[in-house]
């Protein structure tokens, strides 16, 4: 959520004419995240976030809109697109596809408590139970094929050790896909459940945001992503945080034997995916006036840690 | 919103199995309002209100659910029904039709400020602009036909002066309908926009609730209802409150000549409607363990005040 495209007051007044949310009061760019341009937009009727989709395939956007709308309709706390007067969710601002979503009250935290991890477990379990039979499909845009192509671009930029690690891990994932992943339960997952993308009010989840990597994938992928971000601090694994998440999650969705067997490989899949995408952002930046680049190194360290001694998926 | 029907923890656990909003944490009956039974319901995923519909025609309920869902989808702040796992909005609790809606954060006020009236004007104008082309229809269940039938029941209970006033006003409304009301702009209106039914956070409208009298009616009816409740205190007309509402409202929806001409008659229509429905509730109560009866007298006084000296519909 960096500011790649400047949006003017004139743009916003023209946009708001297509909605029923009153008149413009204030707006401000948001400098966080990596993929889209985001603005806070305040109107006489409420507070909203405007997202300009900088990279998304316009064909894919209705899927995200429908998913967010569907989750909100079913009570799963999340950002929620506002319908236009004509009933659609997508507008055009500065020639880019754009959407207004409800601005959630709450804040993300870089230092979650075990209690917050427990609350997250309850929310993610409901999402994974296939909320209200949401059946639309979208493939994972960062699957092994994408990682493989990205690696080819990275080989000329990375030190030899890193290239070797990439090659090994891509081959490992190829085997793991065949051996494990094809048998796992799948549904629409968030696929980007970093601490940045969950807002809390106290110990409650106020909402999950940034669904723009959501796709039909192994449910276990989200768990490995959460483990990799929420249960590590300064290179230390936080067992109590992870156990709290897992206890709440498995209460609503018990894990299968196949998931438990696939877990160490899925941890490595997630570490590889985010290491590679961050390397691409760092070595081949998209540009923009106020773009934040995330350090790839922590995911390399996680990948190595997961090869040696992966944390468990079961409760003690 | 009184408690007519007791709901048990067992009822709620069974209900929540059909939703994706987590597990029961707490519940409590709400003693306010007049028509339905309402409970606060807290779950691991959020805070909700359960409404049991005590009087509504089950055929009409989907209209209210669709309207609330539609307004929320378009960003008009309002309570918002939660969809069940099967996609529907209606459940059954203790043999009554029931719905879970989002619990809004905010509070109603009995002493609104002019600034709050201004905020309300913006919200009501958006609702009246026919948000996103909501086209479903529902007739006004408290129209002149209903008032006429209610008056027949009341004649045996009321003093002679009140009976005479009723007869006069019903006849006046019959003529006003023909002379004025048939030409007025219509759409789906809330029709019960009392201070109880609007929640604020500071000067902002957090949400409009209790849409269970919503119907296809003259837009002017809502304005007369708001004037009658928000712009009077202890028998005094609050000109600044009314002007603040009107300024914000007409900015988004200018009034027609026909509406300005019909205004004094519409004020009397609204005062008559609520006087009669409160008389019915007072003389023929529905019963229930914790039912609040509103005093009919203020609406009789308003009716008399409107006959003498109705407040204006235009800005100075």
Automatic annotation (TrEMBL), chains A, B:
**Per the record's keyword annotation, is Ubl conjugation included, yes or no?**
no
Pfam families for this protein: APH
Q: What is its EC number?
A: 2.7.1.39
Q: Looking at the keywords, is Transferase present?
A: yes
Name a single GO biological process: threonine biosynthetic process
Q: In which pathway does it act?
A: Amino-acid biosynthesis; L-threonine biosynthesis; L-threonine from L-aspartate: step 4/5
N-terminal signal peptide: none
Q: Which PANTHER family match?
A: AMINOGLYCOSIDE PHOSPHOTRANSFERASE DOMAIN-CONTAINING PROTEIN, AMINOGLYCOSIDE PHOSPHOTRANSFERASE DOMAIN-CONTAINING PROTEIN-RELATED
The record's similarity note reads: Belongs to the pseudomonas-type ThrB family.
Protein name as it appears in the record: Homoserine kinase
Q: Which organism is it from?
A: Salinisphaera japonica YTM-1
Q: What is the lineage of its organism?
A: Bacteria, Pseudomonadati, Pseudomonadota, Gammaproteobacteria, Salinisphaerales
- Gene encoding this chain? thrB
């Amino acid at each position: 959520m960096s500011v790649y495209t400047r949006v003017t007051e004139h743009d916003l007044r023209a946009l708001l004419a297509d909605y029923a949310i009153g008149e413009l009061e204030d707006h401000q760019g948001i400098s966080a995240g990596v993929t889209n341009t985001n603005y806070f937009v305040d109107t006489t009727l409420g507070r909203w976030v405007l997202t300009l989709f900088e990279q998304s395939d316009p064909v894919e956007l209705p899927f995200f809109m429908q998913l967010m709308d569907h989750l909100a309709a079913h009570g799963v706390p999340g950002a929620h697109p506002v319908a236009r007067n004509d009933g659609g969710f997508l507008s055009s601002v500065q020639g880019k596809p754009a959407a207004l979503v409800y601005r959630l009250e709450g804040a993300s935290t870089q230092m979650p408590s075990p209690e917050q991890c427990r609350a997250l477990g309850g929310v993610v379990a409901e999402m994974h139970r296939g909320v209200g039979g949401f059946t639309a499909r979208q493939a994972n845009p960062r699957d092994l094929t994408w990682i493989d192509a990205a690696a080819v671009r990275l080989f000329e930029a990375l030190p030899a050790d890193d290239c070797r690690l990439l090659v090994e891990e891509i081959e490992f994932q190829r085997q793991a896909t065949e051996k494990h992943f094809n048998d796992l339960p799948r549904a629409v997952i968030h696929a980007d459940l970093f601490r940045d993308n969950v807002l809390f009010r106290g110990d409650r989840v106020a909402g999950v945001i940034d669904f723009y990597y959501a796709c039909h994938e192994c449910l276990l992928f989200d768990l490995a992503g959460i483990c990799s971000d929420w249960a590590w601090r300064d290179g230390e694994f936080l067992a109590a945080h992870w156990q709290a998440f897992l206890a709440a999650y498995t209460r609503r969705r018990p894990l299968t034997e196949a998931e438990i067997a696939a877990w160490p490989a899925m941890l490595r899949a997630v570490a590889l995916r985010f290491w590679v995408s961050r390397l691409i952002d760092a070595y081949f930046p998209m540009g923009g006036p106020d773009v934040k680049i995330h350090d790839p190194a922590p995911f390399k360290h996680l990948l190595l840690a997961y090869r040696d001694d992966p944390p468990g998926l079961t409760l003690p």
